[in-house]
Amino acid sequence: MKKNRKLFAVSLAAFMTVTSLAGCSKGGSPTADTAEDTPTESVQAAGASGTVSTDGSTSMEEVIGVLGEAFENANAGVTFTYNPTGSGSGIKAVQEGRCDIGLSSRSLKDDEKAEGLTETVLAYDGIAIIVNNENAVTDLSLDDIAAIYTGAVTNWSEVGGNDAEIVVIGREAGSGTRDGFETITGTQEACKYRQELTSTGDVITTVSSNPDAIGYASLASVKDNVKALSVDGVTPSESTVKDGSYVVQRPFVLVTKKDTALSDTAQKFFDFATSSDAVELISSAGVVAAK
Questions:
Q1: Phi, psi of 98 (to 5 degrees)
Q2: Which end of the chain is more exposed for a tag (fewer CB within 10 A), N or C?
Q3: 85 phi and psi, to 5 degrees?
Q4: Is 225 helix (H, G, I), strand (E, B) or coil?
């Protein structure tokens, strides 16, 4: 796969379960149950060739990385690529035919669906509210978060922290993470950002280097260099995302053209990624499989 990333420890058996995947559908949008309706074609090492190109959400790097790597390992002739441009750019890329599958960390809007795009939910991801490890705050209510991002609360001392100005960090317009965060917190068009950054990694790095900063990022991408706050007493985790108790969450979506068939190779990857065979891999990336 043409992207630097860490290798995931998955069994060879998990790689080779791809053998039950279906070939390309001959019309209409790809679906997760294609394999049940179409004669199967073995997808083993050297059993498929060509490329699968994906483009979009930076928050989906971990999950798309592990799925792409598994697919490449099971198919020696395949090259899998991922272009981390952001959800809005990924949606536009698939619409313009510049990639096989778009990646979005938000649901498609009605106007995007009207333009011939369709979505398939791959997984659900928590949006972690993150602060610097030196910050004394460990929990905020959803109302606190909204107040901070709209400028009603500007000092950490107002929410139990040190006497310091809050530095509000967020994502750029068009980001699926930003869209999800603002929708859940009811802060659309009202956030007062100090900085608007273009990737999940940039947000995490910025917050990790500023003791007074607050940001939001995909839970799957959060490491020990920042602290993820609990929200209304609920800690973000795979289990709390799955049971819905952690409310700051959004879907990870595969975007395709409704009436345009994928290539054979791209269809096989799509079928694999949305099958029960991929659930363990998706979970290993820190998100909750939709299937």
A1: -90, -5
A2: C
A3: -105, -10
A4: coil
Nearest-angstrom CA–CA distance, 108 and 255: 8
The answer to whether residues 141 and 245 belong to one domain is yes
Distance CA 212, CA 68 (A): 37
Task: Domain count for the chain, please give it.
Answer: 2
Same domain, 103 and 135: no
Indicate the SS3 state at residue 261.
coil
List the Cα angle 246/248/249 in 5-degree steps.
90
- Asked if 181 contacts 236 with a C-beta cutoff of 8 angstroms, the reply is no
Tokens of 173: 């317009």
Residue 4 domain-assigned (yes or no): no
Query: What whole-number distance in Å separates Cα of residue 246 and Cα of residue 147?
Result: 19
End-to-end CA distance of the chain: 25
pLDDT value at position 11?
Answer: 35
Range of the domain at 189: 126-249
- Per-residue pLDDT, 47: 56
User: 198-247: per-residue pLDDT in tens?
Assistant: 999 999 999 999 999 999 999 999 999 999 999 999 999 999 999 999 99
Residues 110, 150 within the same domain: no
Q: Which residues pair with 119 in a beta bridge?
A: 255
pLDDT at res. 133: 98
Determine if the pTM surpasses 0.70.
yes
Q: Residue 266's domain is classified under what CATH number? A: 3.40.190.10
Would you say residue 45 lies in a domain? yes
Model pLDDT for residues 135-182, shown as the tens digit of each residue: 999 999 999 999 999 999 999 999 999 999 999 999 999 999 999 999
Asked if the structure places residue 18 within a domain, the reply is: yes
